[in-house]
Design goal:
0% strand; single chain; mainly alpha; 10 helices
């Protein structure tokens, strides 16, 4: 049941042009723009080396949180989830299927963004250990954002979810360390912003891909905490209608 629902969810995601704009085109344009035009001081080194990990984190945010929250919220409003609730598919299996479909779309996103970044001169580091660390970060980030997105979609009205999800996306884009280093913010705000899941994901990816560090355990711990909290609350409070 989970596999069948995951394939259905993937087809539905890929058919929505506005979702593809959010999940593919916007991150790609930001990567190209900020890498080629000196808008923000990203520190020493090539701008693309700082920006590419942040944009990968943004891609996970846009697909797993914003896109999923909006699409699931309107499925709930139009009665799609109510019909699924009457089927043998349990609530946890629906969440697993939606998370799996998100992972499939993210693979396509990451392949595209990686190709664009490499064409802009990106030189990722890390080796085999780094690749495994990146995979762990992306999985943990997907779980965290999926839980939060499903929690929002399963508890708020569709219109409120649409507004809140887009607002959170914009705020995290600006304040989450994606394209603007957290060091540019007041010192008092850095601790709070650094605890956000998108900041933990972006910083963890930079530790590996930009600085060649090992497994960023601190970032993984933050993402795991958000994943447990988000998925647990979504499983508890998600309403089919």
């Amino acid at each position: 049941m989970i596999v069948a629902q995951a394939l259905l969810e993937t087809r539905m995601l890929l058919r929505h042009g506005e979702q593809l704009l959010l999940t593919v085109i916007i991150p790609t344009l930001l990567l190209v723009l900020f890498s080629t035009v000196e808008i923000v001081d990203t520190g020493a080194g090539e701008p693309v080396d700082f920006l590419a990990p942040g944009v990968l984190a943004l891609a996970v945010l846009s697909t797993a949180f914003t896109g999923q929250a909006i699409s699931t919220g309107f499925e709930r409003r139009y009665g799609v989830l109510k019909r699924l609730g009457a089927s043998p598919l349990p609530r946890w299996a629906l969440m697993c299927a939606k998370s799996a479909s998100v992972l499939i779309v993210e693979v396509l996103q990451i392949a595209l963004l990686t190709a664009v970044a490499l064409s802009l001169g990106w030189s990722p580091k890390g080796g085999v250990v780094g690749a495994l660390a990146v995979a762990a970060l992306l999985l943990a980030g997907t779980a965290a954002f999926s839980g939060l997105g499903l929690l929002m979609a399963g508890t708020l009205r569709a219109e409120a979810t649409l507004a809140a999800a887009n607002l959170v996306f914009v705020l995290l884009l600006v304040c989450g360390g994606v394209v603007v280093p957290l060091e540019r913010f007041p010192e008092a705000a850095q601790t709070v912003l650094g605890a956000l899941p998108v900041a933990a994901l972006a910083d963890g990816l930079r530790e590996v891909l930009q600085h060649g560090a090992g497994v960023p355990w601190a970032a993984l711990a933050v993402l795991a905490g958000w994943a447990v909290a988000g998925l647990g609350l979504a499983a508890r409070f998600f309403r089919w209608e």
